[in-house]
Design brief:
The protein is of the alpha/beta class. The chain has 10 helices and 10 strands. The strands form 3 sheets. Strands 6-5-1-9-10 form a 5-stranded parallel β-sheet, covered by helices on one side.
Length: 275
């Protein structure tokens, strides 16, 4: 037997042993993880440019698909213990059609990755006055979710009901999508969009443009930690979220590196990459 072949076999065996020790006995069942995405200002925003090709029009409204959303959903769908949901206060027909129109390069729609879509009729009304998110909440309990393993990704933290704060991953400040920071002044002057929802500096604009890529990195790391028995999915998210989500809107090398780091390929991929 050639020495090179023997070395390769030893390395493969070493990786299998390492993976076995890392992930625990094969008989251990991983928890099913439910990841719920809001729609408006989370995966889409109102379009601010007729020339933008990343838009869809539904029921007379044009939406800009946020950067990174399709790639993130595609990647999550490949996790065999993850279920993907959407929950928006919009009407059911609008939500379904919007998700149907957002497609990957292969032509697969976000709706096709979805276990269930929740809409206005699934909200819980808690008040009769005040802004929409004060009157209605996204109560996950009556929808049958296991709150120990469920996260709602939302731009508006007011939608969480008391007792379910740990089930909310807030994205930080909400902004209109702007393709070019230098166009903000002209967009403000049009007067058809609320001025408070425009980023006030280039860092805030850049970080907002990439917010779903940061969410993607956090979810990826949390799911890996769950798989490798390093802690629960929710615990990881809430102890590490400040390291992944730039809530302070300060761009630095750490957040730039998160955008370029490669996802954990896992032990199987490493083994199969050997010649």
């Amino acid at each position: 037997m050639k020495i090179s072949v023997l070395i390769t076999q030893i390395l493969i065996l070493t990786f299998f042993v390492a993976c076995s020790n890392k992930r625990g006995p094969a008989s251990d069942k991983r928890s099913r993880i439910s990841i719920i995405f809001d729609i408006d200002y989370t995966i889409v925003a109102p379009s601010t440019s007729k020339k933008d090709s990343h838009t869809v029009t539904v029921e007379g409204e044009t939406y800009r698909v946020n950067d990174g959303v399709v790639e993130m959903i595609e990647k999550l769908s490949k996790r065999d213990n993850v279920d993907i949901y959407f929950f928006s206060g919009g009407g059911e027909s609008r939500n379904l059609e919007l998700l149907k129109q957002i497609k990957s390069d292969q032509g697969k729609s976000l709706l096709s990755y979805t276990t269930e879509v929740y809409s206005f009729n699934d909200l819980t009304q808690v008040a009769t006055e005040g802004r929409f998110s004060k009157r209605y909440k996204k109560n996950l309990a009556p929808l049958g979710f296991d709150l120990r393993n469920t996260i709602l990704v939302d731009d508006n933290e007011l939608f969480a009901v008391p007792g379910q704060e740990e089930n909310m991953l807030w994205l930080g400040k909400t902004y209109h999508h702007v393709e070019d920071y230098n166009k903000i002044t002209s967009l403000k002057n049009l007067g058809n969009l609320e001025a408070e929802y425009f980023p006030t500096n280039p860092d805030a604009w850049f970080l907002a443009r990439n917010k779903l890529k940061y969410v993607d990195a956090l979810l990826d790391a949390a799911l890996d930690a769950e798989d490798e028995r390093k802690g629960s999915f929710l615990h990881f998210i809430h102890t590490k979220k400040n390291e992944y989500i730039p809530y302070k809107e300060v761009r630095n090398s750490h957040f730039d590196n998160l955008l370029t780091q490669k996802p954990n390929r896992g032990c199987t991929s490493l083994v199969l990459s050997f010649p």
